[in-house]
Fold each of these.
Amino acid sequence: MANLKTILSGKHLLALSLALNASLVLRMGYDRGNKEGSCLKKTEHEVDSDTDKRVNSRSARLAVPSYSSRTNHPQDRDRVINLDYGDPSMYERYWREMGEKTTITIPGWQSMSYFSGWSDVCWFLEAEFATEVVRLHNAVGNAVTHGTHIVVGTGSSHLIMAALYALSPPHPPHQPIPVVSATPYYSSYPAMVDLQRSGLYKWGGSAESFEEEGPYIELVTSPNNPDGSERRSLINRSHGLQIHDLAYYWPQYTPISSPAHHHVTLFSLSKCTGHAGTRIGWALVRDREVAMKMSKFIEVSTIGVSKDSQLRAARILRAVSESCQGQRGESFFGFSHNVMDRRWKQLRAVVARSGMFSLPRFSPSFCNFSRRVVEPRPAFAWLKCEGDVEDCETFLREHKIKGRSGRHFGASPKYVRLSMLDSDENFTLFLDRLCSIQS
Ligand SMILES: Cc1ncc(COP(=O)(O)O)c(C=O)c1O
């Protein structure tokens, strides 16, 4: 004992007691967190009994994680869960599991030229990439590719600008053509349209209140960002031109009802496979002149699109197509469908319990890809604060959940858009937080 006293001096004892107190405080918080977790456990039970058992037995390694796998780090309690952006980190688990299947090596001498040299419409389009785009659309059945021209862009954001340029009347005395979209619209559209104060086009606001005579461009997003609704052109007047933004028209988000065949249809690698950082999008364009003008825009703004990214995208798209045919392990759309399905069930269960929020309802319909009736499972939750809460974004922020206010989408601040594509860990912490908010 005397030895112990000499080893543990006064200073040591003080430090020890502080450490014990700190761990007690953390433990109390942690236990409170676990009580909140009991709400999750109850809803987990509901979700499990409701979930299609085929889904969970198909692949043990890629199985959808349940609440019990959530992280219980005390430091997570103070972390803000940022669901403001649609960053698709959810898909990382699948691609990690695929290992080397999508790894490419590009030797130093390859892809050096500006030119790809085989398409007379889009001179920077890599043949391998174009082949895989067609193959995937044919496998999924979500777009007609026959008779269309492919234009590649640095993400579909680039292609939205290219399409606006290509569709705008070129010569004076035209006023800038109004660009409209039905509310709630993708929050980046107004900034994309007005950033450069172009003399060719200008943001014209919500399609519902658009009353001007003459030409206009309508951005039609289906399924829609932020609310997941299926959309068609709203205005439908003879002078109107449409850009169909189908970034989310893939089987993990929505039933594939028919192949899209519009004048300008945009897709994005970011939302299809989750490779947002590769910055690749593509347009399927019916009219050759429009496709050439879009290519011109890309030529002038960036002198083409990274060949390295196109080659990487080609390999990833090929892996997805092959997985659809059961050639390469777990099907990509099977995996992503299961994750989205479970997340939506979990979120709906938590929202139903809270009595404070509501979510849009979607009707199930037949999916030609999966050959069964499925319900849409959008990439974003368009959450509404019911009751007295007028500013849902601020309300959630107080509970350490960061979303994007309905205001940015031309809608009421009672709505908030929250990403459903974040990592498993963040999604579970988000549910945990939401579960702790009771009416
Ligand atoms: C509807 C819609 N269109 C386009 C984009 C831009 O995608 P990309 O990463 O291909 O530029 C997004 C991204 O969130 C989107 O939601």
Amino acid sequence: MRQEQFNCDICGRPKQASNHWWRVRAGNALHIYHWDYFGEDGWDDSIPTKHICGQECLQRLVQNFLDAPFGIGSTISTTEDIQ
Ligand SMILES: [Zn+2]
């Protein structure tokens, strides 16, 4: 089993075991998956993936996508502080 550390690509929060996270493939389209949908070893991280810690950050990611004319690619800002 992998012990990889993930941080939210929006707010930077580290993933805890009990968190309810999503993985998102974002480019010209958004593909949103529940974190455990593929299991820990079933996800291909060689494909650019955003790791999202919760609904608030997911909504922010979607808003970034809606605001970007050609998709957000790998250029999502992570500098905003979420309290
Ligand atoms: Zn977050």
